[in-house]
Amino acid sequence: MKLRNKFIEIQVNPKGAELNSLIDIHTNTEYMYQKTPAWWQGVSPVLFPYIGATQNSQIKIDGTVYPTTKHGFLRDQDFIAQQDDESLTFTYHSTDDDYLSYPYRFTFKIIYALNGKTVNVQYQLLNKENHVMYYSLGGHPAFLFEEGDTVVYKGSDILTRFTLDGPFISGKYEERVGSYVLSHDLFKDDALIHQGVNEVTLKSKTRALTVDVSEFEYVGLWSMVKNDKMGPFVCVEPWNGLPDEVSFEGDISEKLGMKSLLPKETAVLNFSIQIK
């Protein structure tokens, strides 16, 4: 499904409600990564109800162990799509099959709207249960920037950086960082994960964009690395949640970064992508 104004056009796949294309109409420039056979086969999946990996691909909820998949299952589901002149709305209602691995009933909406050269993305999560629901939620958009391009962070003067041991959180420390130059070496240990970032700007010699992540607690920055070469993209990932810590064995309510939602309440989170 497509949505456009005078400046930009987006295309969204109802499967996973995934943003697959963002084009500057004036220059006919594509900003979203287009799947390349040798590299990652995603573009912009939604991450729910987990972010990253869990220990032994499982999670404990009220004493019962349930199977999980990396970044959750919502990215693989078919959404109900609606379109009007100003927005695209994608809705997913949890199923009995979902309940077998994630014992909460919910409705999830993703709304895409355009404002000038900005794509506004809104997540709406409704807890349909009569008890507290635990979840993580995030985005994973991949953009056409490459080795040698620049990433600029805007936010707190001192950020919290989380370290990884394999796919799991191993520690954290404070650092002052304003920018990075993209390189395969930057991603040799997988994603960079920070707390305290409000905006992430990507710059090349010919293009730039800014992702506003201020409503999310964490942000991940990631590209795939093969044979000491960085992939032809970089992902800016607004996260409300984190992968498991090393050796975590607790209940979902004790998981680092986990969010909770009261009965019958709705969580609303927004991020935006502005091309320059």
Notes on the protein architecture:
The chain is mainly β and 276 residues long. It has one domain (2-275): Beta-galactosidase, Chain A, domain 5 (Distorted Sandwich), CATH 2.70.98. The chain is 1% helix and 50% strand. It has one helix at residues 96-99; strands spanning 2-4, 8-13, 18-24, 29-30, 58-61, 64-67, 80-83, 87-93, 106-115, 118-127, 133-135, 137-138, 142-143, 150-165, 168-175, 179-181, 192-203, 208-212, 218-222, 225-226, 229-230, 234-240, 259-261, 266-275. The strands form 5 sheets. Strands 7, 8, 9, 10, 12, 13, 14, 15, 16, 17, 18, 19, 22 and 24 form a 14-stranded antiparallel sheet that branches. A 4-stranded antiparallel sheet has the order 1-2-3-4, with no helix packed on it. A two-stranded antiparallel ribbon has the order 5-6. The model has no long low-confidence stretch (mean pLDDT 96).
Ordered list of secondary-structure elements with their pairings:
Elements: E1 2-4, E2 8-13, E3 18-24, E4 29-30, E5 58-61, E6 64-67, E7 80-83, E8 87-93, H1 96-99, E9 106-115, E10 118-127, E11 133-135, E12 137-138, E13 142-143, E14 150-165, E15 168-175, E16 179-181, E17 192-203, E18 208-212, E19 218-222, E20 225-226, E21 229-230, E22 234-240, E23 259-261, E24 266-275
Antiparallel strand pairs: 1-2, 2-3, 3-4, 5-6, 7-8, 8-9, 9-10, 10-24, 11-23, 12-22, 13-22, 14-15, 14-16, 14-17, 17-18, 17-19, 18-24, 19-22, 20-21
Order of helices and strands: EEEEEEEEHEEEEEEEEEEEEEEEE
Low-confidence stretches: none
- Give average pLDDT, whole number: 96
The CATH class assignment is: Mainly Beta
Query: Strand pairing plus helix content: what structural class?
Result: mainly beta
The level of helicity is under 10%
- Tell me, what's the shape? globular
Beta-strand content estimate:
over 45%
Count of DSSP strands = 24
CATH topology: Beta-galactosidase, Chain A, domain 5
List the domain count as a whole number. 1
Q: Distance between termini? A: 24 Å
- At CATH's second level, what is the architecture? Distorted Sandwich
Q: Let me know the largest β-sheet.
A: 14 strands, antiparallel
Number of helices: 1
